[in-house]
Amino acid sequence: MERKDAVVNKMVTGINYLLKKNKVDLIPGAAKLGETGKVIVELNDGGISELAAENIILATGTKPATIAALGYDGQKVITSNEALILQEVPPELLIVGGGVIGCEFACIFAEMGSRVTIVEAMPTILPFTDRDAARQMQTILKRRGITVKTKAKIERVARTRRESLLF
């Protein structure tokens, strides 16, 4: 965790340096596009700013889905956000969704010793990528000891005595 935090801090510092060096203004807040060439930003520190520019990049970021039906609690049923701050490696991990992030986390946790299973509702993992790449990735996952179940859906989540995580 200390190493991960150090790497993240170094990357953030480096990106901020590159933005400043290339005369890019970073304006933290919630933005929406206005009329052509304009952005309206609700600033994080309060207030509203209207900006005009020829080129506009909205870096929206992402938020993982917290599906209530799966019993999300942030402890046993977690998202990728909580997975990044776990203090211990779980002995078992069930990952719902065989997309890019699900496969990435499966590899990380399998490498650290977790028994990992990926459940994907679609016929293949990485359903929105090239079929050959998806097949190759499934082969790699199996070689790493990761169980992949496609065309599968979670019907219910129940608490057991086993120490496993779902995300």
Keywords:
alpha/beta; 7 strands; 2 domains; FAD/NAD(P)-binding domain; 3-stranded antiparallel sheet; 4-stranded parallel sheet
Structure summary:
With 167 residues, this protein is of the alpha/beta class.
What form results from the Cα inertia axes? elongated
Q: Return the string of H and E elements.
A: HEEEHEHEHEE
Amino- and carboxy-terminal Cα gap: 19 Å
- Strand percent estimate: 15-25%
Looking at CATH, which topology of the largest domain would you report? FAD/NAD(P)-binding domain
Q: Which stretches are poorly predicted, pLDDT < 50 over at least 5 residues?
A: none
Largest sheet: 4 strands, parallel
Number of helices: 4
Major sheet strand order:
6-5-4-7
Class based on secondary structure composition and strand pairing: alpha/beta
How many domain modules? 2
CATH class of the largest domain: Alpha Beta
> Would you report the number of β strands?
7
Oligomer: single chain
Query: Mean pLDDT, nearest integer?
Result: 89
Quick one: CATH superfamily of the largest domain?
FAD/NAD(P)-binding domain
Please state the second-level CATH architecture of the largest domain. 3-Layer(bba) Sandwich
Radius of gyration: 20 Å
